[in-house]
Amino acid sequence: MKEAIKKSEVLIEGLPYIKKFFEKTIVIKYGGAAVDEKGIERGILEDIMFMNYAGMKPVLIHGGGPLISKMMKKAGLEPKFIGGRRVTDSQTVHIIDRALHTINRKIVLELRSMGAKAFGLSGRENGLIGVKKMKSNPDLGFVGEVTSVDTTVVKRLMNDNIIPVIYPLGIGRDGNPYNVNADDVASEIAITLKAEKFVLLTNVNGIMKDKEDPKSLYNTLKASEVEKLIKRNIISAGMIPKARACINAIKGGVKKAHILNAGVPHALLLEIFTDKGVGTEIVK
Length: 284
Prior knowledge:
The chain has two domains: 24-195, Acetylglutamate kinase-like (Carbamate kinase, 3-Layer(aba) Sandwich); 198-284, no CATH class.
């Protein structure tokens, strides 16, 4: 009986949030080492499907670094990174396209097998992600910066209650595909869609004052406070681009941004549908 009461309490706690976010757009980015040729952990997809059935409009952007590196090595190419960005020549960019397309298809098929409607998209199709070549010394090759976002096709899918699943390649004015940072792509898509929430799923609990102390987690931060933490080096290394993507989304009009640990079971549902949440939320 006690177990049943606890379950009912969880459902009641989530009800106001289901009402609040009904028909609202939630942009979710999931990448890093957790995304490989197998796709994405089923628990994450269950959360996304739950959101969809609860009347929300989730949009998923994913990466796939491990499979890209694996396919590069198989082709005789050694992965090389400068400043956290993959050096991308003409051969590598096509390998990236094939790897991400493979993952994208598996995610879409998995969502469909679970009963959701989903459709895969490449950022280089239909002018979804327009880019310019990133200026860098040394040159990174076919690495781009986002210059435009056209979400016409994405909105059509959402209006038909279909979950868009997007992988982050962009198209340059020269007609070539470019490798683009997935956090940046997700942030710009969230802005263009006027999303209610922008969620970054990563391998840490959120932004912490002391990386070694889980209790030092910041539950809520203003965008201005996040910028100060970057300057003070409390936010460092790989967390910097994620934090800046969140700041960009908030400045672009997104209501809230969240950094969550994808390893926490049902982290998305716990963050969105409970009072306390499980990660760091960033607000204006």
